Amino acid sequence: MKLDIIKAPGHEFNRPLNAKVFVPPIKSQGIKTKLVPRIREVVQWDENGRWIEPFMGTGVVGFNMRPKQAIFADSNPHIINFYIAISRGEITPAIVRAYLESEGRLLARQGADHYYRVRERFNQTHTPLDFLFLNRAGFNGMIRFNQKGGFNVPFNHKPNRFSQAYITKIVNQIQYVFDLCHLNDYTFVCQDFRETFKLMQADDFVYCDPPYAGRHVDYFNSWNAQDEADLFAALANCEGQFILSTWHSNQYRRNLTIPRLEEAYHVITHEHFYHVGAKETNRKPVLEALVSNYQPTTYRPQSRHYQQAALFETKAAYQQDEE
Ligand SMILES: C[S@@+](CC[C@H](N)C(=O)[O-])C[C@H]1O[C@@H](n2cnc3c(N)ncnc32)[C@H](O)[C@@H]1O
To answer: How many C-beta atoms surround the C-beta of residue 120 within 10 A?
Structure first.
């Protein structure tokens, strides 16, 4: 198949636009899988410096960019411990397969009782393998912690979750990250974004995907006006290039920071649909924004590829993508 490759002056690192998007082993509510093709178009960076992600979440964006050098940071220690364990070789594809086969058998036999036993165990021991299990057997792949820092996502009521095919899918996702970490120079660090910005150098490329104010607040993940002000100040002082992901508007509201961002930077919008409840027809549009401190010359507005994806995406396809 002929790959659709973009190339612009100074854009030495060519990214095939229609390359398959890799889905990482950890899921979360704010995962940016759907935005990866658009971000690939907008990123313009010659890879002399490092890829820096102060809010890595699942890592889906950075892992799809496949940088040679990267710093992946997040305030959630469990996400970071999970990827540190892979990069140190403490978690391997074979270890994950054996672990999920054995836990999956117990889940099939004991259902919710087993899920809640693992959740209790994880809240005492914090082992990365249990974090993976809970993330994949918990409700909607959510990551949420109570006020004491305990993981509190309920069971997804699928005791037969860990079929051989599903385990193989997860093992392949682990293999992908394992290979990336062992072929390249990646650092995973649990820290506040203000600390990550102190590490920046002029040839680094920063991708920022902060929490959206008022959404998904929990023990490790909250966002207030001071955070927003500090992030905007850090971006204004950023010597390198950056992309900031944020929301632009939905049916009911507009993001009031957009006009300010438009004055200082370039803003590209991208329509995205998400599903609410069980009905196939219940699709809500949201306009996402990618804000950059450089003029992207490689992105193609209104590309047919995206319009079609948005128009024809069924709920089943949407969910499968996130798996
Ligand atoms: C919207 S999510 C990032 C999603 C990610 N781009 C993905 O596709 O999976 C925001 C992330 O920021 C982290 N976070 C929240 N507050 C933070 C802070 N003050 N410093 C660093 N990370 C923070 C959260 O733990 C969460 O993983």
So the answer is: 13
